[in-house]
Amino acid sequence: MRYRRDVDGLRTVAVVPVILSHAGIPLFGGGFVGVDVFFVISGFLITALIAEEIREGRFSLLSFYERRVRRILPALAAVLLVSWLLAAAILLPNDFREFAGSVVAAALSVSNIFFWRQSGYFDDQAVFKPLLHTWSLAVEEQFYILFPLLLLLVWRFAKGRWSVALLPVLAASFALAVWGVAHKPDAAFFLAPTRAWELLLGALLAVGAVPPLRSRILAEGAGLLGLGLIGWSVLTFHGAMEFPGINALYPCLGAALLIHSGTRDTAAARLLSTRPMVFTGRISYSLYLWHWPLLVFAGYLAFRPLTGWETAGVIAATVLLSVLSWRYVEQPFRRGAPLLPGRRVFAGAAAALLLACLAGAHGLTTGGWTGRFAPQVAEVSAVAGMRDPEALACQDRRPADIAQGRLCVIGAPEAQETWLYWGDSHAIAFQHLYDEALRATGRKALVVGYNGCAPLFGIHRADYPLPCHAVAEAVKALIGRTGIRTVVMTAFWTGYYHDTVQSDGSGADTAAVLDAAVARTLRDLAGQGVRVHLADPVPGARHNAPRAMAASLAWHRPIDGGFTAAEYQERNRRLLAAIEQNGASLHARLSLWRRLCGEGTCRYGEDGLPLYFDDNHPAKGRFAFAREDIRRFVAGGSALAAKQDSAKPE
């Protein structure tokens, strides 16, 4: 296979948008599609080499895997080593423990599975995961474990009809991806079966499935269209859209068009073949490996968004490290001699992987190497794990189970009347306190707590796979079937107003939709003779509270994590107004925020420990000061609904 400068240039088109997107540069929000471009390039190049060697009768699986080891492992090992050293110096215990797990996953080429298993409602921000980007390397390596065997089998038993064999696999993978983004979006993003079609698209080009472009005009048009599709994707895509699925077709087809038309001397091919494009493409693997850990560690240490100059400095450091990595790590190992000549590279790879696994195991078994910090830092950081396992078993019940009342029961088992305790993840986090309050007042309640779903009728949450509308309808059916006459509602209402997209068919914006839903839900329940107890949202913190407090202790510098009372009221202005306007439909109201924000600043820690296990969910055992307020609220009184001058938690 002849060397193609334009394909190296296409690597530049892939990696630069990824870096700029991750760095938060405006207009590059869709830069993540560069990974998809990489997949198409990889599928084309690797398949072309394998197919050529199979045709000539000189293909060897050992030789193939040796090339993969030489291509992938040395630079990755260098990044893992430097990242581990930086993590040991910077990361707090909880974050270092998670990082240690990701080191093992990256070394074993299963980091896509590792990060998929971590994903979900309580997943931490990507900006705290230095090795998150290695998921794409894992996808490729998993793909190339089986793919050469498939090509060999087709050559042996189907007379080399690779196109006929690969097309159904590509179609199945693409169909799975389209289904996955609607039903299992995290799995669709991270796992190899839903990404394989992107690599296979390049593979089909390599085995000649697409006839060559004989017309120069067609070739020119294909090249320009390819650039246009990738550019349009980079400039218009955003993280909230469904991806990969159908949306991934555009950058992948763009890459395929550029590869296919690049055999002719087109304008696009000449652009991609310029010296800056080619050189950047040659160091693209190192650029991809280094940029994300550097951005994460810089942001972690700053504990705030990086400034423009800081971001520029990180990008400059990325380029410098990448050039050095390409020159002194990638190239020597790819040439083979004198560094680990021949098959000795496998022994070297095994040693490097073992070392990485041991380093990761150390971080896991030591709880994030807590000995690096004062004991209080570890104690504060540990609050991140203070959740109620009994309550967690009650969350996210299926709508059918909710409608039939197959739910957890809290409170006094002997109570005659059954209430409904309805909310989201905050209801689950507060459940143990409401259990105590219900027992103390001789009541019991069924629990409906669904992560990320506001306890409101008649709305749909966009870009969210959980059946929020179905849950609300199931609650309505449950109330109608059982004759429940008291509903206690608690949720992080602030998040729905600011961080979600909600619709009700009216075309109104999210705030208006939620305002109407609050009024409608309270009115509908009151119309059925249901007494409603509603809790205002707690203030939360600006940052993950255990991390912020631990960082302040570890780094001996103040970190602002609290909102002011004025900020709380402004953030919840629409909600508080909606509640006030519908106050006649409420039987009781709880406003814990008045206690937490009574001195002007909303506390997110007391007695040296955080109140929340993240930036808004109450940690178990840390809201004991609210016991009496919640008991009065359950008993039918409005707790802290009037302004208090002195409101320090006790």
From TrEMBL:
Name one matching Pfam family: SGNH
Q: Which residues form the SGNH domain?
A: 402-618
Entry's transmembrane regions: 7-25, 72-92, 142-158, 165-182, 188-210, 217-237, 243-262, 283-303, 309-329, 345-364
Q: Where is the Acyltransferase domain?
A: 6-326
The GO terms this record gives for MF are: acyltransferase activity, transferring groups other than amino-acyl groups
Q: A GO BP term, please?
A: lipopolysaccharide biosynthetic process
Q: Name one GO cellular component term.
A: membrane
Listed A to Z, the keywords are: Acyltransferase, Membrane, Plasmid, Transferase, Transmembrane, Transmembrane helix
InterPro entries assigned: Acyl_transf_3_dom (IPR002656), Acyltransferase_3 (IPR050879), SGNH (IPR043968)
Could you identify this protein by its name? Acyltransferase
Q: Which organism is it from?
A: Azospirillum thermophilum
Q: What is the lineage of its organism?
A: Bacteria, Pseudomonadati, Pseudomonadota, Alphaproteobacteria, Rhodospirillales
